[in-house]
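Forwarding these from the shared drive since the link keeps breaking.
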Amino acid sequence: MRAAQYMFPHVRIQTCQVHFVENIRRALQTRTEEKFRPFLTDIVNLLFRKKITRPDFEKKAYRIMRRYEADPVVFQYMLKIDSYTGLLTAAAEYVGAPRDTNLIELYNSHLEGRLKSIKGFETFRTARLWLNAYILRRRYKLFTDCSRKFKYLNGTNSIGRTKKRNGFLPSLFH
């Protein structure tokens, strides 16, 4: 996060809500212990089911905190959620911004799969060239398998969707 803010001073950071909740779930052992399941259900349903604005998030979090204020463990988690509120609600400020990192994870797992088949690079320069080519190819490749609400993306590519309106886009992979 600090590296991103250093390189891009005006960047908005969004913490992955799915991973944030999973960390709480794991710490409270709600898959095996019932004690904290109602609390987890409340935070998932009220705070993390969909994108909500910061004021709505804060109001709902306050109601949850009041409901569980007698439990010191839950109270500590609510304080942690409160300290992350800005990072957990940043996506609500942007239409179409995801509240999780699933797309990034998909991209990374694809890259990892490609790198497994490569035994190594001769030099750092060849590794850099290969990675640059890989990223360019991925950014220029047309979407073909999108379904449901993302079906409209088929036939377009990520670099074309992110360039400025009248920006020139050279054809590199035709």
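-- next protein --
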Amino acid sequence: MAEDSAGADGGGTTTDPLMRRLVETARDGGWLRDVGDRHMAHHRPGGATLLVGFEELETARERDEPAPWTARLAAKRGYATLTILADGRTWYRDPALEALFDELTDEGFFDEFDTVIFAGGGAEGYAASAYSVAAPGATVFAVQPLATLDRALTPWERRFRSAWALAWGPRYAYAPDLVGGAERVYVVSDPTETFDAMHASLFRGPHVMHLPATHAGPEIWQRLETIGILDRLVAGAESGALTPLRFAQLWRGRRRDRAWLGGMLRKLDRRGRPWLTGLFARYVADRHDSAPARRRLADARARLCEEGRALPGEEPPAEPVREAG
């Protein structure tokens, strides 16, 4: 594909560290181009596997070393990458982006690779699922994917109201149907998050594997990145070795993630179960220097004491001495 002006000089924003990185890594057979007003496409050459990822520009800029998340996996696994970068939350609903994938399909771009993986989380999980139809036989790794925000199809979805006015069709639209041509589809979701679980349940078929990340909260993709298992999950999806058991083993790494631990403490607080809150707070306090965990542990112990109970391994309160009547 011919390089446009963005591929030549980063669209004139060479002082931007992210843009410099994109321009440098697009050389020697790659390309960087603007796609409509709010998207950019970056192709980095590599091996026989193509990783197609989606991300907001600001998220890529905020990393310690500004780069798309696909760059780290490309460096580690030798993948070629195609990264679609969005200026804000666009939901990747753009005729120019649809035209790009049409063009790539017509040119046989995806046919040049032995394996193609589409991956993303949240809005990007929706995009990874929807645009995977451009490469039949691809693998999809979708985290918290939304099926669509078309009001006629998901009237129960009350979030993301600003996106309701977008055109959710007629092409590259309803993600559960568009993954029908994929060889394998992995859907990671939190069954305790009602709306996310409802979207995930719409992805069905013998080629779809659901991987439950129970109590992961609203930012599963970020949790996978933070605990350092995203690359192994994508590699497992590529080889077909990813299973619910393997996912559960890797997902245990969340116990080292302070953000996840804090979210669980708040979730248990809302449930009003001091025994369970106390157990979890004690676990966190024993392993981390966490003031919130210590506060919750003290509160749980006080509430249990009022009920004449105690946490396992701790002495219950002594019975009060009653005076003879």
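The first strand starts at residue 31 and ends at 35. Confidence is low (pLDDT under 50) at residues 5-13.

- D.
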